[in-house]
Amino acid sequence: MADLYVSVTDTIIKQLEAGTVPWTRPWTVKGGSIMPRNFATRRSYSGINICILWDSQIRNDWPSSLWLTYKQAQAIGAQVKGGEKSTRVVYTNKMIVGEGDDAKSVGYLKSFHVFNVSQMDGIEQEAPSPVLSQQARDDQATAFIQATKADIRHGGDMAFYRPADDFIRLPDTTAFESYEHYLATALHECCHWSGHPKRLDRDLKTRFGTNAYAAEELVAELGAAFLCAHLSVTGQLRHAEYLANWLQLFKEDSRAIFTAASKASKAADYLRGFTEQLEEAA
Fold first, then answer.
1. Strand (E) or helix (H) holding 179
2. Are 199 and 193 within 8 A, CB to CB?
3. Which run of H or of E encompasses 130?
4. Angstrom distance (rounded) from CA 135 to CA 7
5. Using an 8 Å Cβ cutoff, are 280 and 274 in contact?
6. Please, are residues 159 and 180 in contact by the beta-carbon 8 Å criterion?
7. What is the pLDDT of residues 179-229, one digit of tens each?
8. β-bridge partners, 63
9. Would you call 241 helix, strand, or coil by DSSP?
10. What sign for the dihedral angle of Cα 161, 188, 273, 151?
């Protein structure tokens, strides 16, 4: 898997150095495409696979966010078009290491290849989902945030989550360029809130050491991006102030984005669990 770690990380480094943040508002691709899903199982992809598939979809200007393996395509009578190349994604598998009382289950990554349905013949393209009005989308995202019952306090000119007192501080909505920018910031802070010891108990110090702060901000940023895509919120994410730290983190650790994306998916799913019954991710 070493080459996949390096290739994904190198791609993201190049995008960040060029001033592009690959997980920022990818759902503005034509057709209102949002979270990538498997066409056959209907399950959503998770973790780093979201970033990988978003990047592939955007670079190739595909309107669909649905994907299939070659075997899945064959099973439904579809055929990959000549000359089309697959996108490599990953999944976590487990194996038992040790014997007897010392035996333990260890997770590891394996890769497989998928094709976008836009690369195939013999698949009837789905009609795009109805587009909600701006007000309906704002109301939906507001209700989503309120359902968490997080302690959100308004006032001042800074947005932050204070773990010691377990509350979120947000400026008043009028301080933001738009209500959607307020929502995106609130989702970012809710992702931080999800990591509290009485929730997901997310402690990144052991994994990242002195880079734990940058890694936690990356988790919250990715988690907010996943939720913004899910809720069709097009507000600005808060990436600009962290770019230098993330670049340093990625250059030092080719697996950092994989860990952060996994933690971000768990944060997003935890928050979605307040309003939805979630299916198992692909």
1. helix 179-194
2. yes
3. none
4. 40
5. no
6. no
7. 999 999 999 999 999 999 999 999 999 999 999 999 999 999 999 999 998
8. none
9. helix
10. positive
Q: At 233, give phi and psi (nearest 5°).
A: -95, 125
124 is written with which tokens? 């009837």
CB 218 within 8 A of CB 250: no
Q: For the segment 58-103, what is each residue's pLDDT rounded down to a tens digit? A: 889 888 899 999 999 999 999 999 999 999 999 877 778 778 777 7
Widest Cα–Cα separation across the chain = 61
Mean pLDDT, residues 111-134 taken together: 86
Instruction: Encode burial over 162-186: b for 16+ CB neighbours within 10 A, e otherwise.
Output: eeeeeebbbeeeeebeebbbbbbbb
Q: In whole angstroms, what separates CA 25 from the centre of its chain?
A: 11
Amino acid at site 40: A
CB 255 within 8 A of CB 1: no
Strands 79-80 and 120-121: antiparallel
How many residues are given for the chain? 282
Q: What is the pLDDT of residues 17-46, one digit of tens each?
A: 887 777 776 555 454 557 899 999 999 999
Q: What are phi and psi of 223, to 5 degrees?
A: -60, -40
Segment (H or E) for 109: strand 104-116
User: What pTM, to 2 d.p., does this model score?
Assistant: 0.88
Lowest mean pLDDT among 69-78, 237-246, 266-275: 237-246
